[in-house]
Amino acid sequence: MKRRFDAVSKYIRESDMYLLILCVISSIYGIILIYSATRSQDTNTNVYIQIVSLVLGIGLYVLFSLLDVDTIADRAKILYVLSILFIATLFIWGTEINGNRAWLRFGSFGVQPAEIVKIPYTIILAKMIANFKDKKTLSAPLSLVQIVAVFGGLFIFIILSSSDLGSALVYLFILIMMLFVGGIDLKWLLLGLLVLAGVILLAWHTSILTDTQKDRILAPYNPNIDPKHINVTWQATQSQYAIASGNFLGKGLLKGPMTQAGSVPQQYTDFIFSVAGEELGFVGCFLIVVLLLLLIIRTVVVGIKSNNTTGLLVCTGMAAMLIAQTFENIGMCLGLTPVIGLTLPFFSYGGSSLITMFAAMGIVSGIKMRPKPARFRSYSR
């Protein structure tokens, strides 16, 4: 018994309990918002699933924090093959929800492979970039081709199997941030952005993008596309109305007219921010932003204080994932960015999303637990 107690005490001392507490607080806040957004339904299935996912997420946080990320990274090739195969299952068993065939359904519970694969993808990139950096060949063309090939393979599989552009773009943002922090020659990043612009133009002027997809992309910046707000801007417009009506303190939890009437489509998933805006006002929205900002800052700090390049890059990738999804989700709720179906980390309904986020933060905690260079030991907390 004493050994178990000592093991638990040691874990609490060495792991990142601040990060875990932030994750749990954010998730509980999200569950409260989900309950408010779905309580008019006959059952509370969504709430129960989210609670179960929270419990599983805490368990995975502990498990992943005990794993050595360098040991995992040494199996990068196996991770990549398994990631490709996992996403490829969507070709056979994928279920379409809101226009994206991005889910594997198991009764009431759904798994989104592109969400889960973000973790091995980040670790694989971190290992590759760290290896090339150690060999001083990160900016060599052959190294960049290999890195881009890893990203490109997953990106193409996600698009072809599910048409989930939102998740695929998160993968791109993770790649850019990790290369930047890894120290790539900026001329290659600039060239990459120019190539990306060319690809976007090609997709725009061919049949790759449908007219509806083009309208969704342009709608936040061109009011003439949907002047009556009844087509591609309907969701975002309803969300803006809900948020604006909340003013500073909101109309009260469980008392938002639009939320309780279900006037905002997908309000418990992609548009959970609008629930906070209407019922808890500016204060409720500000609290969400603060919690996510603290999670991002904590992740970055752990990376900076880590003992090796791989740890720094993994934390960079996890922070990039949080930044991309937070910016895009809140932006589309405010009508500032296109509606592309990305969840708000820890807050939106989604078991696979919540579990993935806890596992990702567990890896960050594990990086904190590893021994540090002497210059960092006085800053271990």
Task: Please outline what is shown here.
The protein is mainly α and 381 residues long. 69% of the residues lie in helices and 3% in strands.
Sum up the structure in keywords.
381 residues, disordered C terminus, three-stranded antiparallel β-sheet, mainly alpha
Order of helices and strands: HHHHHEEEHHHHHHHHHHH
Strand content: under 5%
Q: Give the biggest beta sheet.
A: 3 strands, antiparallel
Structural category: mainly alpha
Point out poorly predicted stretches: 373-381
Sheet with most strands: strand arrangement: 1-2-3
Overall tally of domains: 1
**Averaging pLDDT over every residue, what do you get?**
89
Number of helices: 16
Distance between the termini: 28 Å
Estimate percent helicity. 55-70%
Approximate shape: globular
Gyration radius over CA: 21 Å
Query: How many E-type strands?
Result: 3
Main location: membrane
GO cellular component, one term: plasma membrane
Subcellular location: Membrane
InterPro entries: Cell_cycle_FtsW-rel_CS, FtsW/RodA
